Each structure stands twice: as C-alpha cells, then as structure tokens.
Amino acid sequence: MYNKEMYIKGVNLGNWLVLEKWMNPALFAGTTAEDEYYLPQQLSKEVYEARIQIHRSEYITERDFATIRSWGMNAVRIPVPYFVFGDCPPFIGCVEELDKAFNWANRYGLLILLDLHTVPGSQNGFDNGGLSGVCKWAQQPESVEFALSVLERLAKRYGNREELMGIEILNEPNTESSWDAFNVTERYKAVDEEMAKGTAPVSFGFLRQFYTEAYHRMRKFLPEDKSIVFHDGFDILEWKDFMQEEKFKNVILDTHQYLMMAETDGCPQTVDGYVSYIREHYEKEIEEMAQYFPVICGEWCLFNSLGCGCDTKGGRSVLNGMEGTSAEQMSDEEKREIYLAVAEAQLRAWKKGNGYFYWNYKLLTDTVNEQGWIGWDSWDFGRCMANGWFPQKGGRV
Predict the structure, then answer these.
(1) What pLDDT sits at residue 4?
(2) CB 52 within 8 A of CB 60
(3) DSSP E strands, the chain
(4) Which residues, in sequence order, are CB contacts of 321 under 8 Å at separation 6+?
(5) What is the rounded distance in angstroms from the CA atom of residue 210 to the CA atom of residue 49?
(6) Taking the complete model, does pTM exceed 0.85, yes or no?
C-alpha cells in the first residue's frame, strides 16, 4: 500500500496496452499506419485481433513483474487506452490484461499507477496519443465526457485493490507552454487533414476544470489512501495555486523530463551540459513544487544525442526521417560513463520529489541489427541494467 513517505522507484509498461510503432515496428508490418488509430483500418479484423492478442500475451507476463522486483523497483506505471473497456470498436479492450497485472503485482509486491494515456480526438497529437497530428479532444464535449467515464470506471474497478497506488487523470496534454516546441503538425503529419482541422493546444484553464471534475468523480470510488495524479502539461511551475484546498486529498503532480526536450531548449549536448541543465532546471523546479504537492517524474530515461553520436533534433528516429549513425562513435566504456553521469544527475533530481518511473521497461526495436538505431537502446531499462548504465543497488547512487 502506498503512503506519502514511500519513495517510488518504478518503470513504465509502455507499448503493452497502448502501442507505439517505434517500440515494436513488427506490429505495424505490411501497413503504412504510424499510430494505433489507423492500424485496424489497414488490417483485416482477424489479422488485427490476432496481432494484438499475441502481442499482449507475450510482451508483458508474470516473469516481467518478477524481473522488475528483482531490480529493486517497487512500482509500475501502466498506460491504458480510452478503449480499455472494449466499448470502442474496432479497438480491443484490455481489462483482462489489467486484472492479471494487478494479480502479478500482488504476488511480487509491486504497486501500480494506472495512467489514462489516450483519449478520443487526442490530447496531444503525438503518435503515443494514438492519433498523430490531431489534437482536438478538449474541443469535443462528448470526448471529454467519455474520458471522465473511463476514469470513473477504472476507479470503481480497481479502487479497492491493495496494489493500486493511484490513477493518473491524463497523460501529457499538449498545452500552450509546449505546443510550439513539439511542433506537432509538422513532426506528426495528420493522415486526414479534414479531421485535423482546428487542431490546437489544450488550454490550462480547460485543463484545470477537467482535472478538478475528474478528481471529484474518481474520489467517489477511490479511498483517500489512493492517489490521484495529474500531469503538468509540460509546465511544472504552472500549478502552485491548484488543488491546495483541504478538500483535495492525496494529489500528486507528475512531470515528464527528457534530455531530448532539454536539447531543444538549448541544453549543450555534452555530459557537463546535461548535468548542469538537470541541476539548474529539474532539481530546482521539483524542489520548488514539492512545497505544494508530492512530485514524481513519471517519465524519463537516459536517451540523449551524445550517446547516439548525432544530433537527434529532439529525439527524431529513422521513422521520422533521421538517418542516425551507422557505427558506434565511442567505446563501451565511454558510453557507460556518459549514461552513468546523466543517470546519477537525474536520480539526484528525482530525490527532490517522491520518486520516478523510467520510460520504458522494454522495447522490441532491434538497435543492433537495424540501421540507424544506435543510442536508442537507452530507452530500454533492461538493456540499461545489462550494460551497466544504471546505478545498481549499493552502487554510486
């Protein structure tokens, strides 16, 4: 059971129930689909259902929960889609998988943070939002209401499970603060231009109202020892006057901090540059906001352009038209020193708050044999552990 004194050390189970093409390209084989929305439109019903069911049964199993626990982790964050309950054909629901995850978590002593990762019409326009290049959810009252109903049903189904740490209201809404930096309409081209018309950032005013409404609806089913988590909309300092009244219980602020985003903000692509940026921004901002909320870093990783041997322009891959490097630019020891340095700096920053979830537990991209993926193995926590890039128990952190 989670309590505010507990320090969370977790990993994300991304690409299990919410798909991301770059993390498992084989699932999209034979299609031009770049996201989950278009995948079932380009496959027959039988092929689509078979692919999804096989993927879900094999990608995460009981053994993975045992492995995560053996690494000293105490929690997992599970992204779930808006069609989790199976009421949005042609997409396939996944409550059976979630039920299994809760039983595995119970067996291996792990907590679960459920995260509503996608919504109809998309809250960010990212590929991981399920619909690339479209961000219209906040403009569609019926879609907003549907998201609230999903959160209510998740709270009702899992609210009394001992393994539940809490529920995150919405993953990465793309706000006025982040819109220009992510350049969604250029980076993630919409397939249907008519559908994308009116695409715009989610306003903080709307987001505050939505978060507040979601809190009240979920709290009807969530005991006060279960956390309600909200994402900062890529502006961690925006929320100092939010939910500070006594009636709001056990609310956690989630911030996502990636070095590739720091690079687009002007961070030098050197070890010293990364470490200085982490200290000046991540540490200070989390320490400042910890006066108002428990703060977790719900997504981060060791990925950076220096480790890739080229400027990735904010984390663009071969799927975004980047060529990447064709051969390693440094020795294994040099890479290890880079990753350990940025790992230690980031872990110090998260210590200013209440914990973290690494993105991601695993990916199925072959970074060894497939051209252009050098450096992308750092997104995979298991590969980081195997390569000695992450400080071990009794190590330097």
Answers:
(1) 72
(2) no
(3) 8-12, 75-80, 111-116, 164-168, 227-231, 251-256, 295-299, 355-358
(4) none
(5) 33
(6) yes
